[in-house]
Specification:
- By secondary structure, this protein is of the alpha/beta class.
- The chain has four domains: about 60 residues, Alpha-Beta Plaits (2-Layer Sandwich); about 110 residues, Rossmann fold, CATH 3.40.50; about 55 residues, Alpha-Beta Plaits (2-Layer Sandwich), CATH 3.30.70.20; about 140 residues, Rossmann fold (3-Layer(aba) Sandwich).
- Helices cover about 30% and strands about 20% of the residues.
- The protein has a four-stranded parallel beta sheet, covered by helices on one side. A four-stranded parallel beta sheet has the order 14-13-15-16, with helices on both faces. A two-stranded antiparallel ribbon has the order 1-4.
- Strand 15, helix 12 and strand 16 form a beta-alpha-beta unit.
- The radius of gyration is 22 Å and the shape is globular.
- The N terminus is likely disordered.
Length: about 400
Amino acid sequence: MAKTVNEVGIRINDEYCSKCTVCSSVCPFEAISVDEETGEVKLDIESCQICGICFSSCPASAIESVYYDIDSLKNYISKVMKETGYKTLVLTCRGNSPLPMETIEKINKNGSEFISLRVPCVGRIRLELLLKALSLGVEKLIVIPCEEKFCRYEAGSNSSVRKLLLLQALLDQLGFKPDTLTIMKSQIKASIDIYRCIGCGNCAYICPYEAIKIESPGIAQLNSADCSGCGACIAVCPAFAIKLRGYEYESISNTISKYSSLINEAKFRGIKPVVLVFCCQWSEFSAIDKIQKSSVKENVMMVELPCAGRVDSLHILEAFHLGFDGVLVVACQKSECKLKEGNDRAEEHIFALKKLLAQIKLEDRLEMCFISPKYLQDSFKISYIRFQLH
């Protein structure tokens, strides 16, 4: 069925468009083109990745996005300020969160707590929002884009830094303190405990960035400069020797365990099926970030992953053991994986696990789907219907 304008998460408002072509020049995916004869600006939604760089760069505000609009974000900042009294705003990309401890220590060096605002790409944030944050009483803005090499949207980090440097110059002219705006680079990285490593080589084989090698005397060595933080290596390590802050085996397991009381409550109320969703953070925008209205249903509980390739068969089995009726793995569409073959790796894991589950007649309780935030489809409603049919 063809997608209509109302079903996509971004569009160009022809009435506002000044045909300046800034959007087409900044789009890293060549999804925006300009008709040479008419000058009309066109968006190819199939090529679009919803990075939001065009949205933040349009001088006429002619590009409309359903995600992370200025009013919603401003209201969130205002609400947290009133509740906490914090006056430092830390803006981060999903690709560098949770923040490494050394980055948090730098932020807190003066003992200041902060308001955390996380978006899929810092490059999608309009400078207008940061100015509004200052008008609300925010005293320090700390913006943390990904390292350019690992930007999930190719040009998001570079785009954001260029705009932030312009804002920094403006704030200097307006008499703001030099530390009002700070730009810090960060990226989550895996780490290997060499004392637990058994030298099986699974991590080196699975790593799409060739960041891991087995070296003498048969121990995995990680080159952090090449690590993207996708977590694929963790999912295949039988010795639990690899860590990724926020996505460790124990961390995800604890999240699943915390849902056990909710499972019982839902079943007591007659709500079925109760589904656990392992969701790639790049395949979905509205449910993972709580700033916008969540699409998570009361019978659907979610675990966020840095990439679908991080999904672990043991976590899926743990979910069944706790009493979940079904498990759904949500990955990016095949052509849109942000971390090199992560969705393909996940599909291989799920296919292999379903074959094992078939031996105990549970294969129909595990499903996988590929979605994109560019379409306003309710993936969690789809999962509910799918498991209902079983």
